[in-house]
Amino acid sequence: GGGVETPTGLGVLPRAMAAVGAYRCIECNGEATELYRDYQRGVLRISICKSCQKPVDKYIEYDPVIILINAVLCKAQAYRHILFNTKINIHGKLCVFCLLCEAYIRWLQLQDSSQNTDPDDLIRYAKEWDFYRMFGIASLEQTSFFIGIFITLWWMTPEMLKRRSDFILLLKALLLSTYGKLLLIPAVIWEHDYTPLCLAFIKVFVLISNSQAIRVTLNLNRILPWFAIFFGLVLENGVVCLFQKMGWDV
């Protein structure tokens, strides 16, 4: 009755705990009660989806590196495996770390534009405060972006976001899909002369990941997630304009 440790290293929930619809088929998004069947003596067999007659989740046998590569390629199957069929609880930590990376990049660019090299303690304190300010601004922009997405999806597909758990799942999916921001640091370190172009590519990659996360979580077509992201960007840019009117460097 206990769960087993799979090659993914994430572990699968015990089958006894699996309620109806606890898992999802990574191919058709259909509900499943189990990912595998244990025939004892180390013999496991991946469950077959009743809807599409394909393995419910082939990734439970895959190495984590392969799963990561498939997620980077924005494959819907990999996203469904991560979001529905594994226990991952790093959403908050990943979000904070990504925001720290973004704040550091903005702070670095702000320091590059400043010609003041005075080593005075007051100057050093001001520079440290600039970093905290950049972190706060990045957090508010991210929050505004997510709020824009939630408002648009709730307005256009209210049946998809009826319960609090639906909002939480979508929020976790969006937080996980921002992992592309981790590329900000090496982009600046290795390609300093082409930083603006690198940052633009990273931004596009993150948006594509966000779109795929929305599509997989709510089982939508390709157009609606991009529509929600567009309004999220509108609200985010509105916040940026507000900061600029206040005279803040963002």
Automatic annotation (TrEMBL):
Residues annotated as transmembrane: 134-155, 167-190, 223-243
Source domain of life: Eukaryota
- Role of this protein: Mediator of sterol homeostasis involved in sterol uptake, trafficking and distribution into membranes.
Q: What keywords appear on the UniProt entry? A: Endoplasmic reticulum, Lipid metabolism, Lipid transport, Membrane, Transmembrane, Transmembrane helix, Transport
Family (UniProt): Belongs to the ARV1 family.
**Where is it predominantly found?**
endoplasmic reticulum
Please identify the protein, giving its name as recorded.
Protein ARV
State the membrane topology.
Multi-pass membrane protein
Q: A Pfam family for this UniProt protein?
A: Arv1
Do the record's keywords include Repeat? no
Give an example GO biological process: regulation of plasma membrane sterol distribution
The record's subcellular location field reads: Endoplasmic reticulum membrane
- Give the organism, scientific name: Emberiza fucata
